[in-house]
Design a protein that fits this description.
Mean pLDDT: 77
Distance between the termini: 90 Å
Strand content: under 5%
Number of domains: 2
Number of helices: 7
Number of strands: 0
Largest sheet: none
Amino acid sequence: MKYTFILLLLVLVGCGGDDSHKKDKKDKKEQSNEALNLEKDTIVTKSDYDMSTVDKKNQKEFKENLAKIEKVHGEQWDFCTCVVKNDSINKAFSQPVSDAQFDRLSLRFDEIDQRCKAFLMQSPNVTPEERIKHEKKVRNCLKEAGIK
């Protein structure tokens, strides 16, 4: 009886009491998944763009597009900088200007265009709700810049 109890105890401890091998497998699987997720999110961009301003469901696609755009057009400005710069250049073009001023404004427009490709090439305002959201975002940028 004494030996049966000890044998039973050893069997229980040896077989069922230690799930470390299962835990190790689970930990390794989680680490592997985390590594894959990190690999997927290692898209390198030149721009120090705050991704929190991009809609969560579009962040990955935006970052991928941003990396592609930067390969062609260089570092990109953030959304509000583009809004403010485009507003400024549009106001300047709406005024009568000399040929020399027009040439300078055209060069500046081209620079702004190159630095804002990430936003000009995307069309986040497809549905009426998205257009309203986009317009509000633009108004907030201009308001923060003290323009409107």
